């Protein structure tokens, strides 16, 4: 059952999801965990009824009964279900789905979605039933033919966010990771926060180990040791891999010029980007783009 549900989540990469940037579903009791979506640009809101332990960044929190959880694409998490009887509702959505909503900026800065924030909330019966009703309305609307259903669903998401802002966060956190793990988590969060790139006019500003160390207010050697210890790769290698992945996405899915892509990725000149891409992939950007044309 778990494999089939994970497979169904992977199937959400289809065109329908890309067009909407949103999906909501109810999780069956037989599934032993809350869905984790592999795409790096999806936020998640989970409503759960049951006993479990949530591992989030460098902390874990034990929860019983009704729980509301907010997941960000920038911070790793996992969810261990501990009770036999449980049920969950989950919605995933992109920043782009909310991009024409005035609440987007507060989403970036919200304590629900940032490192060191408060993503886990214990709910009383009334609050649980209220938010459950919102999820059920989203389930109903996502397959409807109502012309303005996307806007309606955006309002439902923001209603849940407002409800959470009024609540007190769960306080029974306990630390499960060492300092190196936390530093690595902060590094990965800062790295992923820069993606996806949406415009050549907003190029990468943090693109080498020294830049990251400065932002995190630690010595670059300390950063490199921590990342290597936890991730098994160097800071430079992880940055290179992420920039290469984004370069491929831009080459494949946009019609930007090679020069625009180079600039958006923080390269001063297109030749620098060409040399970088060929060194990593064995192909020039232009040749790789042509190879993707079916």
Automatic annotation (TrEMBL):
SMART domains from the UniProt entry: HTH_ARAC
Keywords: DNA-binding, Transcription, Transcription regulation
Lineage of the organism: Bacteria, Pseudomonadati, Bacteroidota, Flavobacteriia, Flavobacteriales
Coiled coil: none
Gene3D superfamilies noted in UniProt: Homeodomain-like
Protein name from the UniProt record: AraC family transcriptional regulator
Taxonomic superkingdom: Bacteria
UniProt keyword Iron-sulfur, yes or no: no
Domain HTH araC/xylS-type: 210-291
């Amino acid at each position: 059952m778990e494999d089939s549900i994970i497979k169904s989540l992977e199937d959400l990469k289809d065109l329908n999801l890309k067009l909407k940037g949103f999906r909501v579903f109810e999780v069956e009791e037989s599934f032993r965990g809350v869905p984790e979506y592999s795409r790096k640009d999806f936020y998640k809101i989970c409503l759960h009824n049951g006993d479990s332990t949530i591992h989030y960044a460098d902390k874990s929190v034990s929860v019983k009964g009704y729980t509301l959880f907010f997941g960000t694409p920038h911070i790793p998490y996992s969810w261990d279900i501990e009770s036999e009887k449980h049920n969950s509702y989950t919605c995933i959505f992109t920043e782009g789905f909310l991009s024409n909503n005035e609440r987007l900026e507060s989403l970036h800065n919200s304590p629900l979605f940032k490192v060191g924030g408060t993503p886990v909330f214990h709910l009383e019966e009334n609050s649980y039933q209220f938010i459950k009703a919102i999820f059920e309305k989203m389930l109903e609307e996502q397959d409807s033919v109502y012309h303005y259903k996307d806007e309606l669903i955006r309002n439902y998401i923001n209603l849940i966010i407002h409800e959470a802002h009024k609540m007190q966060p769960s306080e029974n956190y306990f630390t499960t990771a060492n300092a190196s793990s936390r530093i690595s988590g902060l590094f990965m969060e800062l790295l992923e926060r820069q993606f996806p790139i949406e415009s050549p006019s907003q190029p990468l500003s943090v693109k080498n180990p020294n830049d990251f160390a400065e932002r995190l207010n630690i010595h670059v050697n300390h950063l490199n040791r921590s990342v290597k210890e936890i991730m098994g790769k160097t800071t430079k290698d992880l940055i290179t891999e992420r920039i290469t992945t984004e370069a491929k996405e831009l080459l494949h899915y946009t019609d930007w010029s090679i020069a625009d892509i180079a600039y958006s990725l923080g390269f001063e000149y297109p030749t620098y980007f060409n040399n970088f891409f060929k060194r990593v992939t064995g192909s020039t950007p232009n040749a790789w783009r042509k190879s993707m044309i079916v």
